Amino acid sequence: MSSATRSSIDLRYRTIDLVTIATLGVAFGVVFWAWGKLYEPISNVALFAFPPSSAFLGGVWLLAGVVGGLIIRKPGAAFATEFIAAAVSAIIVGGTQWGFSVFASGLFQGLGAELVFLLFFYRRFGIGVAALAGAMAAAFEAVYEWFSYYADWDFGYKLAHLGFFVASGVLVAGVGGWALTRAFAKAGVLDSFAAGRENTVEV
Question: InterPro entries, per this entry (predicted)?
């Protein structure tokens, strides 16, 4: 059984783990902020004329939790990375059009991803687990948005919104986050982590 399938890493935090969570959180926070600036003009194009379909753009905001969980592989890492990224995007110069509600989004998105890594006892980190983490983060955020932003939508619209969001979570945050982690590993920047020392890629 590969090291990707069964992790024997110590679940206690090292200083480098905490520094990496903070670094990833800040880096993704800037990405989240920039994507927020692009979101409205992109979501208004004809492709997204069906309002719930704009949720397909949401996967970018779920990347931090998935990548943080895949790299750090310890309890709370996915949640902390996602929440820090959301916080940074809220307090960076100009903030976002959603104001401080992004703190709540970071909480729900991070919790969704974290629960999947917990489900596998922090021992599996392949593309399937990454995709599931992205999907769960999206589902948690979608339901939160039903009540905070789209309370006037009928249930059919809400289900469509959930479907588009989960698809984006799987493809962008899950598969994309897994590919990004593998790219970091191949570049040698993760040599201090199990994700950078694996010789095989779990699928």
Answer: ABC_thiamin-permease_prd
Bigger pLDDT: 94 vs 6? 94
Residue 2 has pLDDT above 90, yes or no: no
Phi (first) and psi of residue 162, to 5 degrees = -60, -45
Averaged pLDDT of the chain = 90
The token pair at 146 is 């039903």
Cα 77 to Cα 36, 83, 147, distances in angstroms: 24, 10, 27
Query: Cα 27 from chain centroid?
Result: 13
CA gyration radius for the chain?
17
Q: Is the pLDDT of residue 132 over 80?
A: yes
Q: What does the pLDDT read at residue 201?
A: 43
Q: Cβ(141)–Cβ(58) under 8 Å? A: yes
> Could you tell me the pTM of the whole model?
0.90
CA nearest to 86, candidates 33, 15, 146, 155: 33
Token duo for residue 114: 């974290």
Judge whether 138 and 165 are in contact, CB under 8 Å: yes
Handedness of CA 40, 22, 133, 158 (dihedral sign): negative
Place of tokens 């492709």: 47
pLDDT at residue 93 greater than cutoff 70? no
